[in-house]
Design goal:
CATH architecture of the largest domain: 3-Layer(aba) Sandwich
Number of strands: 10
Strand content: 15-25%
CATH class of the largest domain: Alpha Beta
Largest sheet: 10 strands, mixed
Order of helices and strands: EHEHEEEEHEHEEHEHHHHHHH
Helix content: 40-55%
Shape: globular
Radius of gyration: 19 Å
Number of domains: 2
Structural class: alpha/beta
Length: 304
């Protein structure tokens, strides 16, 4: 299979690197800079729970050099969509699937609006991974999962094709029967943990050890849940308990790209993730004071 990764950072670099390691033809489409140069000159170096290895995929900033592919993993930050979405066009053929692994809940809609649902597919990742330096990916823990699915929950032929591509050691995958509900369920933990760690300049264990850290985290999760229910999303009744317990259990391994970007002085996705929850909550009349406080504390850093 021929695969393109648009945005080979911590997430895209991991999954693309694993697929390349297992022999798939992978092209990394990256922005010019130290990370791209390092991948070209030294390969992409991965440290993972399944072993350490270096792969040498095609690396370019021009998708025309790659041509049509079978699968696109779309992994750029949401604020890069204006310049990244056009990169998809040269990679398409009739059966190409564009699997978005971006944060948030409406990434696939943006792709479908431009290229159609026959190409767009919503997905989400569950993984602890970071980029400790140019050309390097570090993954921790035994979870490196992609959940994805059709909007109607069907086990279509392209769902089967994507499943066969992802069926590799170092990747777990789930076909979601209700992808929209799954994305909001993930948002309960992703939007809250990342924002709280970043705003407090703390690791997850430090957040949990602070006097009101657990209380604050649960309050944030309850606000996301309330907004989801107000929108008619049928998330599980115990979603906050489940996601809170998950956050506590995985605290030692928790890495969040929002905090990495903040510490590196890069733009933040706060506006499109927890900021989206605040906007939706205010529009629906759902109180979101804790979320609004965190978004406000990080607002000026979204475009440093």
């Amino acid at each position: 299979m021929k695969i393109a990764v648009i945005g080979p950072g911590a997430v895209g670099g991991y999954f693309g690197g694993v697929l390349a390691h297992h022999g798939d033809e992978v092209a990394m489409i990256a922005r010019p800079g130290p990370h791209m140069d390092a991948m070209r000159n030294n390969g992409l170096q991965l440290t993972t729970a399944w072993g350490d290895f270096t792969v040498h995929p095609q690396v370019t900033d021009d998708p025309n050099e790659v041509g049509p592919v079978d699968l696109i993993l779309y992994c750029v930050k949401l604020f890069h969509n204006p310049e990244a979405l056009p990169l998809i066009a040269p990679l398409l053929q009739p059966n190409t699937t564009v699997l978005t692994l971006q944060n948030g809940v409406d990434s696939a809609d943006a792709i479908a609006e431009r290229y159609g649902w026959e190409h767009a597919m919503a997905g989400a990742t569950y993984i602890q991974t970071g980029r400790p330096g140019p050309g390097k990916i570090h993954q921790a823990g035994l979870k490196a999962r992609i959940a994805f699915g059709e909007q109607d929950g069907s086990h279509s032929e392209r769902v089967k094709r994507v499943s066969s591509i992802l069926d590799r050691e170092g990747i777990q995958y789930d076909v979601a029967p209700d992808i929209v509900t799954m994305l909001w369920t993930k948002l309960v933990i992703v939007a809250t943990v990342a924002s709280l760690m970043t705003a407090s300049r703390s690791s997850m264990p430090e957040v949990l050890d602070s006097p009101w850290g657990r209380y604050t985290l649960r309050a944030l999760m309850e606000e996301v849940e309330s907004v989801a229910r107000a929108k008619g999303i049928e998330i599980p009744p115990d979603v906050v308990d489940q996601r809170f317990d998950e956050a506590v259990a995985e605290a030692e391994h928790t890495q969040v790209s929002l905090q990495d970007d903040f510490e590196a002085g890069r733009p933040l996705e706060i506006e499109s993730i927890l900021g989206m929850v605040v906007r939706e909550g205010m529009a629906l009349g759902v109180p979101v004071p804790a979320s609004a406080a965190l978004v406000t504390s990080l607002w000026k850093f979204r475009h440093p």
